[in-house]
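Running this now, will post back.
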Amino acid sequence: MPTYDYRCDANDRVIEVSHRMNENLTNWGELCARAGIDLGDTPADAPVHRLATGGNVVTSSSLGSGCPPTPACSTGSCCSGGLCGLN
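Update: finished.
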C-alpha cells in the first residue's frame, strides 16, 4: 500500500500512514487510529489534510550500486547468458 503524509491544523504535526489510494483521512482521530498513536491533547475531530508529496522515486543513486540500470542490448534480442551491457 502507498504511504501518505497528513498534516493536522490544530497541532501542526505531520504523520505518515499507509492506506489504499481511494481512501482519504479527514480528522485527527482517523489519522491516529491508522498510525497507531495516541490522540494526545488534540481533539479527535480536528481536521487533517493530505500533503502533496512526491512518493518513492527510483534514481540511479537509489539502486544500491550507484550505477544506472544496464541498457537493453542494441541487437533487440537477449545476449547469450543474459548479460546485456556487461563486460
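The CA atoms of residues 2 and 22 lie 11 Å apart. More later if anyone needs it.
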